[in-house]
Amino acid sequence: MNKAKLIESVQKSLGGDTSKAHAGHAVEAVIDGIKGGLKKEKAVQLIGFGTFKVAQRKARLGVNPKTGEKIKIKASKTVKFVVGKELKSKL
Q1: What residues have CB less than 8 Å from 8, skipping those under 6 apart?
Q2: DSSP assignment, residue 91?
Q3: Count of CB atoms within 10 A of residue 7's CB?
Q4: Quick one: which H or E segment has residue 56?
Q5: How far apart are CA 29 and CA 84, in angstroms?
Q6: pLDDT, tens digit, for every residue of 14-48?
């Protein structure tokens, strides 16, 4: 599912009187809320769905696939998702 299909699904869930634009704003608001929570608190937990966490990746050596040359990859932050029990049981 992509973002457009998610917006359509939210529009259907909210009812026939909801416009696609309002559903799009709702989806954007949720995404922005998750981004803000990750930036401030480093984790966002949605009971029954799962938890988004900020994780640290260590610096490591990699290989340039074109040349075969070894390169250094810097340490970086990433987001990990841990699925909740309720969602996992429905999969």
Answers
A1: 20, 23
A2: -
A3: 19
A4: strand 50-57
A5: 22
A6: 887 888 899 999 999 999 999 999 999 889 999 99
